[in-house]
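Here is a typical sample entry:
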Amino acid sequence: MKKLLVLAAIVALAMPAMARAEEGSELEISGNVTTVAGWQRPSNNPAFPVSGILADGLAAPGGLTTDTFGFFVDQVELDLAKSFGENIRIRADIDFTPHRVVAGGGQVEIEQAYVTANIPAGNGLEFLLGRFNSGIGLDPIDRNELSTVSFSSVHRTLLPHNMTGMRLGYDFSEATRLEMFVVNNLNGDVTPPGSAADSDIPSFGFNLSYNWGDEGNKSWVKFSGAGGPERATKKGWSFLGDLSGNFAVSDAFWIGAEGVYRQDDAPVADNAQYIGGQLKARYAFSDVWDGTLRYGFVWDLDNGGVGGVPATGYVPANPVLVGTTGVLAGLGAEGQMHSLSLATSYQITDGAKFVIEGGIDLSRASAGGGTGMTPGIAGMFAYSF
């Protein structure tokens, strides 16, 4: 009830702002409501708690152990943005997650909250301070923007999603943009600054992107890198490199690709090392109906410690979490996971779409234990306003 009262209060406060927006104010209000229904069979290889179509924040934070069917409210998101003149802008994205606890605890999350200032230097330098989406990888942050129901295995396990710090952005041209950031850590602030598991030295990274093609049907490629001493001991770094792109083959056919390497150095014992990637093909059968075929893999080469078990006192840079705020720590054990899914999306009306996806994850631990199969099917209804 308390959560509903909070949501009602925010909506009530937003109503006058909506009226002013219609009268010409620069306040912008948007958001989405995303719901999912799905079924998943558990893997016979419990070493991989992140496998399955529902295991990216929809159900079972510790991994599914029985056949599972459920209805889920993935999120209710309210985005508020306002400009002050031509150079100052503020934005706050508030996510309500009724069925799951977010990384910081509770069921209300500040996905983004920042202030930007445009500095008249060259083509314009953008300075941002606050909490923001990392921009790393092929997948968006919000599920409603996917052409599938589930996030890719790479997005789930290896990439930072939201971070707190500062960012500088510069457009060298209409096609080329560079973003550089300095942040608390690469864990989405799952490890709070000042805690025993966090270094007092910030982490840093960049996104360099290039796009081309006609408006509304652009191709793009992006190279991202990030690193920093993530632990209070300051011994060993976490770092990653990601190359992703989405290519318009025609007006109706797109191919997306991504490859990533990540390493989390341990102060003792072995370092944790991962590689992963995905390949995605999307075809628009009409103006309202399309289909997506996606393959992804993650190879947990070395989970750190001995035999895949982290050494005493070593906390992996990305603890296993529910939801999309943080990220998951590899696969949970040394080994490989291959994911294949087929999805179709139907645009019901402007802002409203239905997506259905069927998929299977195949996993195998390096230490043996057989091959795990995790089939599942899910449907998503998403309304964006």
